């Protein structure tokens, strides 16, 4: 029998994680690790590493995937049945989404109210090009890792995403397919997966 | 200087077209988007463009706004974008439908793996499929950036901001949230100063 307090703890931990994650899924992973592995010792380090690997290899946002998985595993480790495990994953998932849900709803109301306002549009005219830079950076970060051991940067390819020259061919083919032939993202992703299966 | 000065210069975006979108339709569309969001929030952008902008539920101008504001809030970027886009289409209920839709597929997949497939991450078939998908995801993230820059960056100033942000995040390892917060403050000061100056002159 699982202590009901565990549900409350799980909810609270993931609510706080959701509230203090700034900067996306990877920032969330380190917060989850601190809370779940170090502070509460619900999971071992190696169990958590597996969860991160699986979260990256399944569809869906990494932060949400790991919250769902951790919620299940915490209950499972406490000796609960599948059903209670499912309740655990629901608890963690809802808790991690709830703070941003409330905050984004507030922002969105503000946005619809002030859209068209000169000052608001003035601020957005700075943020829109920043988004272009952020997306470009997100793509670059998945390709290259930049370290600064000294004053000269040390740039290396991210092997997880670009393991060999075939990865670069797939990358270029997908750019052409999307930009020139206007093929949608879903067929491109499916083709990538199929080619990976056939080639490797 | 009041913040509300000249408030309804431009009417709010047309909501009429969005009224016709049913909650079920929003839910299903986001479930489709969620099923193919592989590798984090930015991977969702090409899918949102494909599904929402091409259907006319969201304009090309609103997409960067949604990304900027979703990134300024805490939490997971993909979920924040869903909340935002859902609200744009059907208000609070739309937000709920979009959020549940984008979370549900991965929720079910993760549960299935947690309960049934031990060693999923080392399965050779899965590893091979993901070896093919990962580089493709990077291209899919890069392409909307090119479209957005071509449509949105109309001044030299905009290009400066784009390249500065790109450099700071990709090469100097700055966190996007701090950059956005600093930009909001700077932009607010600049806009207020410009307004005051034009008001006096």
The rough form of chain A would be described as: globular
The percentage of residues in β strands of chain A lies in: under 5%
State the distance separating the first and last CA atoms of chain A.
46 Å
Order of helices and strands of chain B: HHHHHHHH
Provide mean pLDDT of chain A, rounded: 89
Q: Span between N and C termini of chain B?
A: 14 Å
Number of E strands of chain B? 0
In short:
Chain A is mainly alpha-helical and 200 residues long. Chain A is 74% helix and 4% strand. Chain B has 201 residues and is mainly α.
Commentary on this structure:
The complex is a heterodimer of chains A (200) and B (201). Chain A is mostly helical and 200 residues long. Chain A folds into two domains: 104 residues; 37 residues, no CATH class. In chain A, 74% of the residues lie in helices and 4% in strands. In chain A, strand 1 and strand 2 form a beta hairpin. In chain A, helix 2 runs parallel beside helix 4. Chain A is globular. Chain B is an all-alpha fold. Chain B contains eight helices and no strands. In chain B, 48% of the residues are buried. The N terminus of chain B is likely disordered. The chains are: A mainly alpha (200), B mainly alpha (201). At the A-B interface, helix 1, helix 2, helix 3, helix 4 and helix 5 of A face helix 2, helix 3, helix 4, helix 5 and helix 6 of B.
Keywords:
heterodimer; A: 200 residues; mainly alpha; 2 domains; two-stranded antiparallel sheet; 8 helices; 2 strands; B: 201 residues; 0% strand; disordered N terminus
């Amino acid at each position: 029998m699982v202590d009901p307090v565990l549900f409350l703890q799980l909810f609270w931990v993931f609510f706080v994680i959701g509230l203090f994650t700034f900067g996306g899924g990877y920032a969330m992973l380190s917060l989850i690790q601190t809370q779940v592995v170090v502070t509460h010792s619900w999971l071992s380090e190696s169990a958590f590493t597996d969860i991160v690997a699986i979260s990256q290899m399944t569809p869906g946002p990494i932060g949400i995937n790991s919250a769902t998985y951790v919620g299940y595993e915490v209950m499972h480790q406490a000796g609960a049945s599948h059903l209670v495990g499912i309740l655990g994953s629901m608890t963690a998932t809802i808790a991690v989404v709830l703070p941003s849900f409330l905050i984004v709803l507030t922002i969105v109301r503000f946005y619809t109210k002030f859209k068209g306002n000169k000052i608001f549009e003035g601020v957005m005219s700075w943020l829109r090009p920043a988004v272009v830079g952020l997306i470009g950076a997100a793509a670059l970060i998945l390709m290259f890792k930049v370290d600064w051991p000294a004053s000269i940067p040390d740039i290396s390819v991210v092997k997880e995403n670009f393991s060999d020259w075939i990865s670069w061919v797939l990358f270029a083919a997908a750019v052409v397919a999307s930009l020139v032939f206007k093929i949608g993202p879903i067929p491109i992703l499916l083709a990538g997966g199929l080619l990976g299966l056939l080639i490797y | 200087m009041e913040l509300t000065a000249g408030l309804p210069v431009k009417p709010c975006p047309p909501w009429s077209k969005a009224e016709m979108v049913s909650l079920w339709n929003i839910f299903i569309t986001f479930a489709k988007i969620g099923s193919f969001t592989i590798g984090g929030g930015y991977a969702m952008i090409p899918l949102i463009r494909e599904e929402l902008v091409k259907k006319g539920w969201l304009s090309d101008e609103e997409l960067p706004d949604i990304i900027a504001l979703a990134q300024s809030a805490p939490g997971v970027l993909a979920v924040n974008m869903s909340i935002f886009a859902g609200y744009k289409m059907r208000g609070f209920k739309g937000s709920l439908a979009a959020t549940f839709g984008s979370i549900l597929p991965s929720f079910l997949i993760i549960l299935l793996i947690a309960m049934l497939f031990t060693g999923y991450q080392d399965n050779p078939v899965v590893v091979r499929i993901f070896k093919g998908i990962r580089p493709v995801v990077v291209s899919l993230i890069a392409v909307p950036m090119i479209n957005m820059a071509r449509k949105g960056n109309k001044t030299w100033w905009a290009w400066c901001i784009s390249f500065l942000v790109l450099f700071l995040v990709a090469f100097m390892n700055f966190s996007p949230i701090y950059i956005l917060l600093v930009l909001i403050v700077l932009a607010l000061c600049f806009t207020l100063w410009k307004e005051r100056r034009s008001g006096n002159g």
